[in-house]
Amino acid sequence: MATILLGVFLIFFGAQYAITGFGFNLQPIFQMLAGYMFPGRPLANMYFTSYTYNALTQGFLLLRDLKLAQQDKLAPKATFTTQVIGCILGALLNYVMMISIVDNQSPILKSAERTNIWSGAQIQQFNTLAIAWSIAPKMFSIGARDQWVTIAFFIGFLAPLPFYIMHRLFPKSKIWPYLNSSIVLWYLGYLFVGLNASVTGCYILGAFGQFYLR
Fold first, then answer.
1. Contact (CB, 8 A) for 76 and 66
2. What pLDDT, on a 0 to 100 scale, did the predictor assign at position 93?
């Protein structure tokens, strides 16, 4: 099941990432799916997310580099072979580094405290999310306390449809063919998270590049 979902998501979101350079964070979606497929099993949720989200992220990176190689007129077969060799060597090196770091920094990684170099916060967050999503039927289903987490996913999937319909109805328009609503809505979400004053500068530079430089 994880392999099938990985292939389906890679076709659609991988194409968008290769064309626009923009990739969604699909980790919550895979965790939600695992939560409903394996309720009450956080370890299964963690493994399912690892085999889908992590593999999908690696696929995105391979697609990005393959596109750059094609733009530079490099042979696709040679590029792909080099990518596979790099992935194998990188996996072996990362495994050795993981064993070394865990063996030597285990007390710090397990504790709530951290140093200026080592922290286990990201792994602890991954574990916490696996536990939370493993009770998704009781926590995130319609009618549950956090139902809007699940509802927001469906709203997000439906939100680009009106813009797509307008593009199909008015293909010669100068607005709808170039309005990627999914990317616009994604970055609008930055406006309500923490300190976001820097986002304004990004919007200004983006508008300047799109409407003036192009």
1. yes
2. 93
